[in-house]
Amino acid sequence: MDITAVIIFAVVAFGIFFFVVKRVLRMAIRLALVGAILFALLAGAVAWWWYAPFGGSGDANRNGNSSARSPRR
User: What gap in Å lies between CA 59 and CA 18, rounded to an integer?
Assistant: First the structure.
Protein backbone atom coordinates (compact mmCIF):
# COMPACT_ATOMS: atom_id res chain seq x y z
CA MET A 1 0.00 0.00 0.00
CA ASP A 2 1.57 3.23 -1.03
CA ILE A 3 1.07 6.64 0.52
CA THR A 4 -1.54 7.87 -1.97
CA ALA A 5 -3.87 4.98 -1.18
CA VAL A 6 -3.51 5.68 2.54
CA ILE A 7 -4.26 9.37 2.00
CA ILE A 8 -7.31 8.59 -0.15
CA PHE A 9 -8.55 6.08 2.44
CA ALA A 10 -8.04 8.63 5.25
CA VAL A 11 -9.92 11.35 3.37
CA VAL A 12 -12.83 9.00 2.60
CA ALA A 13 -12.91 7.72 6.19
CA PHE A 14 -12.91 11.27 7.60
CA GLY A 15 -15.67 12.24 5.17
CA ILE A 16 -17.84 9.33 6.24
CA PHE A 17 -17.07 9.99 9.92
CA PHE A 18 -18.03 13.67 9.72
CA PHE A 19 -21.15 12.85 7.69
CA VAL A 20 -22.30 10.46 10.43
CA VAL A 21 -21.34 12.91 13.19
CA LYS A 22 -23.31 15.69 11.49
CA ARG A 23 -26.43 13.54 11.24
CA VAL A 24 -26.16 12.29 14.83
CA LEU A 25 -25.63 15.84 16.10
CA ARG A 26 -28.66 17.06 14.16
CA MET A 27 -30.77 14.25 15.62
CA ALA A 28 -29.49 15.02 19.13
CA ILE A 29 -30.41 18.70 18.74
CA ARG A 30 -33.91 17.81 17.57
CA LEU A 31 -34.31 15.38 20.46
CA ALA A 32 -33.13 18.03 22.93
CA LEU A 33 -35.62 20.56 21.54
CA VAL A 34 -38.49 18.09 21.76
CA GLY A 35 -37.42 17.20 25.30
CA ALA A 36 -37.27 20.88 26.29
CA ILE A 37 -40.75 21.49 24.89
CA LEU A 38 -42.14 18.44 26.70
CA PHE A 39 -40.44 19.50 29.94
CA ALA A 40 -41.90 23.01 29.62
CA LEU A 41 -45.37 21.58 29.03
CA LEU A 42 -45.01 19.29 32.02
CA ALA A 43 -43.75 22.12 34.25
CA GLY A 44 -46.64 24.32 33.12
CA ALA A 45 -49.15 21.58 33.83
CA VAL A 46 -47.72 20.99 37.30
CA ALA A 47 -47.72 24.73 38.06
CA TRP A 48 -51.31 25.08 36.80
CA TRP A 49 -52.41 22.12 38.94
CA TRP A 50 -50.49 23.40 41.97
CA TYR A 51 -52.02 26.87 41.92
CA ALA A 52 -55.54 25.86 40.79
CA PRO A 53 -56.10 22.20 41.63
CA PHE A 54 -59.10 20.60 39.95
CA GLY A 55 -60.31 23.89 38.50
CA GLY A 56 -60.72 25.64 41.83
CA SER A 57 -61.78 29.26 41.74
CA GLY A 58 -59.61 32.16 42.86
CA ASP A 59 -62.03 32.93 45.73
CA ALA A 60 -60.23 30.47 48.01
CA ASN A 61 -57.47 33.00 48.72
CA ARG A 62 -59.79 35.76 49.89
CA ASN A 63 -60.10 36.65 53.52
CA GLY A 64 -63.50 35.48 54.73
CA ASN A 65 -63.60 37.86 57.70
CA SER A 66 -63.01 41.04 55.75
CA SER A 67 -66.70 41.84 55.30
CA ALA A 68 -67.64 40.93 58.90
CA ARG A 69 -66.21 44.13 60.34
CA SER A 70 -68.14 47.31 60.28
CA PRO A 71 -66.35 50.15 58.53
CA ARG A 72 -64.67 52.75 60.71
CA ARG A 73 -66.31 56.13 60.97
Answer: 60
Single pTM value for the model = 0.56
Q: What is the torsional sign of CA 29, 34, 39, 40?
A: positive
Identity of the residue numbered 41 = L
Rounded to whole angstroms, the Cα distance separating 55 from 51 reads 9
34-49 pLDDT, tens digit each: 999 999 999 999 999 8
What are the DSSP calls for the chain, one per residue? Answer: --HHHHHHHHHHHHHHHHHHHHHHHHHHHHHHHHHHHHHHHHHHHHHHHHHSGGG--GGGGS-TTTTTSPPP-
